UniProtKB/TrEMBL annotation:
Biological process per Gene Ontology, one example term: DNA repair
InterPro entries in the record: ARM-type_fold, FANCI, FANCI_S1, FANCI_S2
Name of protein: Uncharacterized protein
Ranges of residues in domain FANCI solenoid: 53-252, 369-511
Native source organism of the sequence: Ornithodoros erraticus (European soft tick)
PANTHER family per the UniProt record, alphabetical: BC025462 PROTEIN, FANCONI ANEMIA GROUP I PROTEIN
GO MF term list: DNA polymerase binding
Pfam families: FANCI_S1, FANCI_S2
Length: 564
């Protein structure tokens, strides 16, 4: 590079021979000390505007540098900028020849790396805007006709997996009509099964961004079918690839909400076995949490579905419908020995749903599924069928982790305190809370403030309702001093309440806590107060206390003294 001085460049330009200079620049293109951009600008500045040969030589040189994948992004971006500014100074016929030369590399499966492909959209735009162009066989074509011919020629090439992602990026910048776009997308999708798992996520992202509404369905359907076909692959690499794909699709949906709407439409038309396969289920749940819709709305949903948006609601209803269909079909199968004998392997949706929940413990995109999975679990919990509500309970417990515990307990508390809670809703919510208290007590106690709030509302609930809640919470009350103190205060206030139902809550709560020795003295003092209240309150003490004392012999003597 020491020999390439400004004077040397001027001399070579005057002599009309840049071969030596450009060769040295190409050999040193990766050298950080080589200021290739300054040299190129000096050459172009020194070259007369009528020296087409020299400018074309520099043009080809810049393209050759862009073919090198190791060129720094800064240099590559600057070279692309110079290419764009130099196109008007080069004859259209020469630019057309450059394009046909680049197409030959695509046809022969040459080097797909580097950023040289990014020059093609600019070249097509420049040549395609001309009134006439000489075609590859010497024929005269209009600019748009020539551009259409080039796109068709590009689509007719054999595309290998190595070319799939670069070509997807290329077509996202090309201006093509709907028919050409559909053909290109269909051809790109066919390469999907041959690609490396690590390349699929960015490939699908590019396809979704370049697709119109019709092509989106093609891309989503092909991707889901392909990945659902690999659901038996439980390797960490597969899990990571699926998570990355989910992350890319969610990000693409945030940029274009039509992707989510087309997925809803696609899932509505597909059978339950398609919708409830592992990947399609995970993807639908990830998109069920999307919130950036133009018109957000609040809808009151049954159970724990509080704030949502139309896309999320549609997605969850599609999944719920698929679950209903699946359990109905399974019921028919189980009632028919003949049908069971014909089916070698049934589609185990329950295990598929729980597998998705297990995958949510992994990073790398799966965290996008958690929120939708929680919503889906509560939606199943409210279903009439026993199998679906049980699956909903198992799902909520399975996905209960440090990230989701706040949301889950918040929804459970709201459901338990809702004045219009139906008996199935209350029962199912208590089943979930009981499993969490006994199996995930450490995480539950991290949300101690929510449990204290729940205890504070007990006196306002029907006594039977409050008693069931206390029985469920008893394991964590025993290990938490804060919960014990809060509960004693709540029961004491309830015992002195003017409301007769609140007094019954106090009695029922005391009877639940009576076998717990550390609170025995406090509980008996509250029961003593109950014995001088209304007949219905005293009756409750007399009816329930003997049974509790019979089951816990150690409290018989203190309980008898309570009557004195």
């Amino acid at each position: 590079m020491e020999n390439i001085t400004h004077d040397h460049i001027l001399q070579c330009v005057q002599e009309g021979n840049l071969t030596e200079v450009l060769q040295v620049l190409k050999e040193n293109a990766l050298d950080e000390c080589c200021d290739i951009m300054t040299a190129v600008k000096q050459i172009l500045k020194a070259a007369p505007s009528d020296q087409q040969k020299l400018r074309l030589q520099v043009f080809h040189f810049m393209l050759s540098v862009l073919r090198n994948p190791d060129v720094s992004p800064r240099v590559a971006s600057q070279l692309l900028g110079i290419l764009h500014t130099q196109m008007p100074s080069i004859a259209v016929s020469e630019l057309a020849r450059v394009v046909h030369g680049l197409l030959k590399d695509v046809k022969t499966g040459g080097n797909s790396e580097g950023r040289w492909l990014e020059a093609i959209p600019q070249l097509l735009s420049r040549v395609g805007s001309c009134s006439w162009v000489e075609g590859p066989n010497g024929e005269t074509l209009s600019g748009p006709q020539w551009k259409q011919l080039v796109v068709q020629e590009l689509c007719s090439c054999t595309w290998t997996p190595a070319w799939a992602l670069p070509l997807a990026r290329l077509f996202s910048e090309l201006q093509v009509d709907a028919r050409e776009l559909a053909y290109a997308v269909e051809k790109l999708v066919q390469v999907l099964p041959q690609m490396e798992l690590s390349d699929i996520a960015p490939f699908l992202y590019q396809l979704l961004l370049l697709s119109n509404e019709e092509c989106m369905v093609t891309v989503l359907d092909a991707a889901i079918r392909f990945l659902n076909g690999l659901q038996d692959d439980r390797s960490s690499e597969m899990k990571q690839a699926e998570g990355t794909i989910i992350l890319h699709v969610v990000f693409a949906t945030r940029q274009n909400l039509d992707i989510g709407r087309r997925l809803v439409h696609l899932l509505k038309e597909r059978p339950a076995s398609f919708v409830l396969s592992k990947f399609s289920l995970a993807l639908a749940l990830a998109l069920a949490k999307t919130d950036p819709l133009a018109q957000q709305m609040l809808q009151v949903l049954k159970g724990a579905m509080n704030k949502t948006d139309p896309l999320a609601q549609q997605m969850l209803q599609v999944l719920k419908g698929a679950m209903n269909t699946h359990f109905e079909e399974r019921g028919h199968v189980q009632r028919s020995h003949w049908v069971r004998s014909l089916l070698s392997k049934q589609h185990t949706v329950e295990q598929c749903v729980l597998d998705v929940a297990d995958c949510c413990q992994s990073p790398g995109g799966w965290e996008e599924v958690v929120q939708g999975l929680v919503r889906f679990g509560f939606l199943l919990l409210d279903c009439n069928g026993l199998s679906m509500s049980e699956l909903g309970a198992r799902l909520i417990v399975r996905v209960f982790n440090p990230v989701s515990c706040h949301t889950i307990l918040d929804q459970l508390v709201q459901r338990l305190l809702a004045p219009s809670s139906a008996t199935p809703t209350l029962t199912n919510s208590l089943v979930v809370l009981s499993k969490l208290v006994t199996g995930r007590s450490t995480l539950v106690l991290r949300q101690e403030s929510k449990l204290i709030d729940l205890l504070g509302y007990l006196a306002r609930l029907p006594s039977a309702h409050a008693t069931r809640i206390l029985e469920v919470l008893l394991p964590v009350v025993k290990v938490s001093a804060s919960l014990r103190d809060s509960l004693v205060i709540v029961l004491r206030k309830a015992a002195f309440s003017r409301n007769n139902e609140a007094r019954k809550v106090a009695v029922s709560g005391c009877l639940v806590l009576l076998p717990y020795e550390p609170l025995l003295e406090d509980v008996l003092s509250i029961l003593s107060r109950a014995l001088v209240q209304q007949a219905s309150v005293r009756q409750l003490v007399y009816e329930e206390l003997p049974q509790v004392a019979h089951q816990n012999a150690g409290i018989c003597s203190p309980a008898v003294n309570c009557h004195k």
